[in-house]
Amino acid sequence: MPATATATSSPPPTPAAAGAPILQLRGVGKTWPNGQTALHAIDLDIRRGEIFALLGPNGAGKTTLIGSVCGIVKPSSGTIVVDGHDLAREPMPARRKIGLVPQEIYTDAFESVWATMRFSRGLFGFPPDPAHLERVLRALSLWDKRDAKIMSLSGGMKRRVMIGKALTHEPKILFLDEPTAGVDVELRRDMWAMVRELRERGTTIILTTHYIEEAEEMADRIGVIDKGRLILVEDKAVLMRKLGRKQLTLQLQAPLAAIPAALAGLPLELADDGHALVYTFDAQGERTGIAGLLRQLGELGIGYRDLNTRESSLEDIFVDLVKRGGTAGGAA
Ligand SMILES: Nc1ncnc2c1ncn2[C@@H]1O[C@H](COP(=O)(O)OP(=O)(O)OP(=O)(O)O)[C@@H](O)[C@H]1O
């Protein structure tokens, strides 16, 4: 099977230009030799300088997609253009534009931080540039550890070294595969700050994460992949606005065994063993229906002790989307 084949209906790749996407995928598919299809004709444009978060449940195809763009996995179909370079026709120039921070920490434990960094840069055919390596190490707070052997570093430091390695060849796109899996809250915040700094210096960031809070905090745009299909690509703010819901929770004075028939048809659920009534409404709707609901409760003699509202998080939206199979939006 060829490394890539041009998707029949896909437009030809556009040359690198300031306004052009830094990464273009057209019809990228992957079927493993065992017949398992991990990616179905993915079309995706990544904008220059954005932070793009790719979300998806286990086995959705995230690693396969990243591997395809990084030249680790051979797609069965489609084209991938990295800053104007077709990955299949010009693998080296395309690959040089990309830094990959893999999920697993793997590096030579007996080497020093400095030697590891220098070696990484050489792998991409770049001449030594100690000043660049120093900048990277300083930005990652690793300068003081430059002579330390990797095995002597803490887990968090080792993760920083992995990021450093990916930055040695000055990539324009940085892939972070589950960057904060298993790291403590403090380091997670540090890493977020680091990623933002990189973006400010012009690096485009693509990250996969299981922590939806991370995508909510960091991303400009969100892509959701499920069963090998990109079911949604959207600006985070638009997504939160479009699919966001609010919930009003009423703590009842006396528990209910069931929703009263007079309230059937309303978006109501019982929670907390009947002690709470949850009303879900559209955060964007002009009319929430709350006044009517409270009036009806009064008429039915259902009293409440307390009430509060909460907006859905990206996590709620994501879970909902994957449950529904992504009928809420289209992939760009
Ligand atoms: N080398 C392989 N050979 C055969 N099937 C594979 C291979 N690698 C991945 N797959 C299958 O491809 C599908 C997508 O896997 P992938 O690892 O890309 O998912 P993922 O979204 O990264 O999942 P996770 O969040 O668990 O890392 C899965 O069904 C997986 O079993």
From TrEMBL:
It holds the Pfam family ABC_tran. Keywords: ATP-binding, Nucleotide-binding, Transport. The keyword Nucleotide-binding applies. It comes from the Bacteria. Residues 23-252 form the ABC transporter domain. The keyword ATP-binding applies. GO terms for molecular function: ATP binding; ATP hydrolysis activity. This is ABC transporter domain-containing protein. It comes from Arenimonas composti TR7-09 = DSM 18010.
